[in-house]
Amino acid sequence: NSERFDLIELNGSDYTNFTPLVSVEAILNDDYFINTINPLIYQNYPLEPDFTVNRDTSILGLPPTKGIDIATWYTTYLESDPTNPLLDRRLPYRYYLPYHYRQDLIDIQSKIANSSSFTNYSSFLDAMFPTIQIGFYKTQYQYVLPGNILGTSALFSYQKPD
C-alpha cells in the first residue's frame, strides 16, 4: 500500500496554472532501448533533415522519455470512487514509451517512403517494430512545486513480465 495521488498532483489546478505537481520521466538504461530501439530509431536521427517525427519533441522529448501517461481509470476512481482500494495499490501512470517509439518509427518510415531517396533507406523501410522485451523499465517521479521548485523524487520500475 502507498499514499494515493490527488488530482492536483496529476492534472494541476488553477493554483498551478494547470501544471501537474508530479512529473514522470523514463530512465532509458534498459536493454530494450539501448540495444534495440535506440539503434533503430534515435541513434542516427534524423537520417536526413526531412525524416523527422510528426510531433512536438519539446513535449515528450526525443527519444520520448516523458511518454508516460496517466491511466484514465485512476482519475475516474479519484472522482467517482475515492475510497477504492486500487488507488492505494497501483500507480496512476502507465509506461507508454513503446507506443511512442512505434509512432516515431512509422512517421520516419512514411517520410522516407514518400521521398525521392527512399531506395537509400530500404533497410529502414523494411524494419518491423520490435515488441517490448521482458524486463524492468525505470522511471523517476519528481514532485515539482509552482515556480518549478523541485521537491522530493523517487525511482519506480515498471515490469514487463513473462
Question: In terms of topology, how is this protein built?
Answer:
Blueprint: H1 7-11, E1 22-26, H2 31-42, H3 57-60, E2 68-70, H4 72-80, H5 86-89, E3 93-95, H6 97-113, H7 122-126, E4 135-145, E5 149-160
Main beta sheet strand tally, sense and closure: 3 strands, antiparallel
Calculate the terminal CA-CA distance, rounded to whole Å.
24 Å
Helical segment count: 7
List the secondary-structure elements in sequence, H or E. HEHHEHHEHHEE
Strand content: 15-25%
Structure description:
It is a single chain. The protein is α+β, with helices and mostly antiparallel strands. Helices cover 35% and strands 21% of the residues. It has 7 helices and 5 strands. The chain has helices at residues 7-11, 31-42, 57-60, 72-80, 86-89, 97-113, 122-126; strands at residues 22-26, 68-70, 93-95, 135-145, 149-160. The strands form 2 sheets. It has a 3-stranded antiparallel beta sheet, with no helix packed on it. A two-stranded antiparallel sheet has the order 2-3. The radius of gyration is 18 Å and the shape is elongated. The chain starts with 6 loop residues before the first helix and ends with a strand.
In a few lines, what is going on in this structure?
With 162 residues, the chain is of the alpha+beta class.
Keywords:
35% helix; 3-stranded antiparallel sheet; alpha+beta; single chain; 162 residues
